[in-house]
Amino acid sequence: MSQEKTIGTEEVKKVENLVKKHQDKKGAAIPILQDIQKELGYIPKEVLPKVTSLTKIPESDLYSIVTFYSQFRLQPVGDNLIHVCHGTACHLAGAEEITNALVRELEIGDEGTSPDGKFTVEKVACLGCCSLAPVMTINGETHGRLTPDKAVKIAKNI
């Protein structure tokens, strides 16, 4: 299920105001994109031409930045963002089974988000909590020494 949606006039105004903060600064593309994502929760593709028209930064450059850096999102995320660590320690301790259980039990779709928009599950390279492996974060809160059942239970109790 695609989460793509059209942004409205209010969001366009927000984008215009965010761009104005950085408009005359050299190297402003990343800070502008960070501010847009912070405000809207993701970077809708349809705002890129607007940013280009206001800054003269080529749309292809903006798209390259958004797709290169993993911090940027072109799709909205669920209300609860779950990161499952897949670093070496977590991988060896069962991260794949945890991810599979979360995807199955939370009914995560192809875009990584549940149909009700409540959860997004993402694999990440390392959360830096190797002594607690396997680890996940939910909305920034770390949970360690997980089993697939424990991970699902924690997520469902949010």
UniProtKB/TrEMBL annotation:
Q: Which residues form a coiled coil?
A: none
Highest taxon of the lineage: Bacteria
Q: Which residues bind [2Fe-2S] cluster?
A: 85, 90, 126, 130
Any single GO molecular-function term of the entry would be:
2 iron, 2 sulfur cluster binding
The cofactor note from the UniProt entry for this protein is: Binds 1 [2Fe-2S] cluster.
Identify the keywords attached in UniProt to this record, alphabetized: 2Fe-2S, Iron, Iron-sulfur, Metal-binding, Ubiquinone
Tell me which cofactor or cofactors this protein depends on: [2Fe-2S] cluster
Q: Which Gene3D superfamilies match?
A: Glutaredoxin (3.40.30.10), NADH-quinone oxidoreductase subunit E (1.10.10.1590)
Q: Which PANTHER family did the record assign? A: BIFURCATING [FEFE] HYDROGENASE GAMMA SUBUNIT (PTHR43342:SF1), NADH-QUINONE OXIDOREDUCTASE, E SUBUNIT (PTHR43342)
Q: Which family does it belong to?
A: Belongs to the complex I 24 kDa subunit family.
Protein name per the record: NADH dehydrogenase (Ubiquinone) 24 kDa subunit
